[in-house]
Design brief:
Elements: H1 2-17, E1 22-29, E2 33-41, E3 46-69, E4 74-97
Antiparallel strand pairs: 1-2, 2-3, 3-4
């Protein structure tokens, strides 16, 4: 998947170099939220772009407890596990403006 995306980006950049426009690409890893944008400058100061943000969160809490049961005269061990997993996909569309060339 990553290799195919890399090859597609290289081909897109090579195709953009033959035109009179400018290519804009960025990836920013953040605090749990990763994003990327892709745009193409067509000679003016405005660059329309599309982007994608992805958030993946995992949480696992495990708690173990021992207590003495007086009625049965035994030590009881309890283990409680909580698992939470989630993904958030956020596509976005925007317009960049370059103040100075």
């Amino acid at each position: 998947m990553k290799k195919g995306l890399f090859i597609a980006m290289i081909l897109l950049m090579a195709g953009a170099s033959f035109s009179y426009g400018q290519f804009s690409f960025g990836v920013s890893p953040g605090l749990g939220l990763n994003s990327a944008y892709l745009g193409y400058k067509l000679g003016n100061k405005f660059v329309p772009f599309v982007g994608f943000q992805y958030l993946n969160a995992n949480l696992k809490v495990e708690e173990s407890d021992q207590w003495y049961n007086w009625e049965s005269d035994q030590i009881i061990t309890d283990v409680e596990t909580i698992k939470l997993t989630g993904n958030l996909y956020v596509p976005n569309v925007g317009l960049k403006y370059f103040v100075k060339q």
